[in-house]
Amino acid sequence: MADETCPHMQGCEMYEIFTFSETLAVWKTRYCQGDFKRCERFQRSARGQPVPVNLLPNGHVLEKP
Amino acid sequence: MQHWPWFVGGAALAGVCVFHWLTLRRMLAVSGRFTAMINRARFGPEKQVEMTAEELRAAMLAATREAFGPDAAPDAPPTSTKPEAKAGPTLTKQQSAGMHLLFLVALLCGGLVSAFLAGGPSFSGGLRGELFNGFFGGKASSAAVLLFGGVLVGFGTRMAAGCTSGHGLCGVSRFQVGSLLATMAFFGTGVLTSLLLRWLL
Amino acid sequence: MRERVGVAVTGVVFGFSLSRIGFSSWDEVHRMFTFADLRLLFTFMSAVVFLTLAWIAIARLTGATWAPRNLHPGTLAGGALFGIGWALSGACPSIAMVQLGEGQLGAGLTLIGIVAGNWLYSVVHERWFRWSAASCVDA
To answer: What is the pTM of this model?
Structure first.
């Protein structure tokens, strides 16, 4: 029985990035289509706050390699 | 001032939007600039990171392995086979508050130049226009109308995530459903309100 | 630098055009909304037609594509409120700046209202709406 999917998926830059590459699908399974309430991006968006484009669901901030 | 015929105006507005996209790779949108500046005031500046497709791929792979373990992200090619899309998404910078302010000041200058070329500018309190002043009379009432109208504009454009340029021009011309609906909504109530004003005042 | 030039030139030409078309005149906008004078309406519609063609041409020449944006929950209500405000103040966010530049100082009040309204929405959204907030400024 799957959880609901994240209501803030559409327009989420990270979701687009996860969709682009098969390799990153694990993020979708864990957060977007799973336990989205634990996603740092969702929490901020739900509070109406701007979501930094490089913020990952687990709170990690993506930096240049 | 002689106003432009409709097709000249139409061409000018379209030209501006196209120029904006060609130079900035962004759609012309104004209410969003206000939103960005208000967000900056409320929440502080956002830390900016720019990444090319390559850098983003590498950073994402590293982050995925860190989060889910080394086996979680085997090196796989991108799913899309379209040549342009193979590169992948990138991280682009949001525009700074300074840019937004520059745009708004530029708008003001555009008005200034226009008035200057027409022999002005002349400064008047309130707004110019027989109809406007006819409807709303004195200083206090016209001030109240402008303030209240402004609040509705600010509130409504942020709620709809767009205004006449973002939704009306750029959205509708690209057949965005949301923009079509928004444009119909604001034209609809614009018409109703104006007819109501005529009827009541 | 290129960004600054693009932004500044667009702003000035856009503002100038809005003024010359007549969008910064409360009376002209009112006439448009009451269908007394359709010039502004035709201007807007022809701009949309020209733009539609332009985007098609650009897509062909550069291969650019635009993802469809999903329907934003506040679209209809927000649009409706905006329309009322536009009819009352004669302005949308860009027009208020142009009016100010032309010397119509009342637009300053409109602008104060716009900033206040935008801020107010931000607070209201945080407290009550909380749907996905999309900005019309493309990233």
So the answer is: 0.86
